[in-house]
Amino acid sequence: MASADKPLVWLHGEVKTPPFSAAARLEVGVLLRRLQRGERLSMPHSRPLPSLGPRCHELRIQDAGATWRLVYRVDSDAIVIAEVFSKKTQATPRQMMEVCQRRLRAYDRAAGMEE
């Protein structure tokens, strides 16, 4: 990791094989590295989640047996990952959004960054 790369802060979830296929795990790694280097991703790889909060997005990974989502926020000093889950419906589940909001608020409180 270059000194200018933002670190990844994992609040919950992980990317490992199984359940991810090796190809999906590699794709997630490449996308996360691009985010760490300051690149802004857009569809089809990432979409904004303004209802979750500012700078919040979800990575979209199509795997052989599942559709994966990785909910993240781009902070000035890190990429904060709130959740990794298998998506089964078109919409992001409301309960998942609420859990991510709570995790991000707790992270902000612990880091002294409450808005």
Main features:
2 helices, alpha+beta, 115 residues, YaeB-like fold
Task: Outline the structure in words.
The protein has a 5-stranded mixed sheet, sandwiched between helices. A hairpin with a 4-residue loop joins strand 4 and strand 5 (79-87). It has one domain (8-111): YaeB-like fold, CATH 3.30.2310. It has 2 helices and 5 strands. The mean pLDDT is 88. It has 115 residues and is an alpha+beta fold.
Question: Can you summarize this structure?
Answer:
The protein is 29% helix and 26% strand. The protein is an alpha+beta fold and 115 residues long.
Largest sheet: 5 strands, mixed
Number of helical segments with 4 or more residues: 2
Helix content: 25-40%
The CATH topology is given as YaeB-like fold
> For the residues shown, what is the average pLDDT?
88
Terminal CA distance reads: 30 Å
Tell me the strand percentage band. 25-35%
- Radius of gyration, Cα only, in angstroms? 14 Å
Number of domains: 1
In the predicted model, the low-confidence regions spanning at least 5 consecutive residues are none
State the CATH class: Alpha Beta
Strand elements, count: 5
Topology:
Elements: E1 8-10, H1 22-36, E2 46-48, E3 56-62, E4 67-74, E5 79-87, H2 94-111
Parallel strand pairs: 1-5
Antiparallel strand pairs: 2-3, 3-4, 4-5
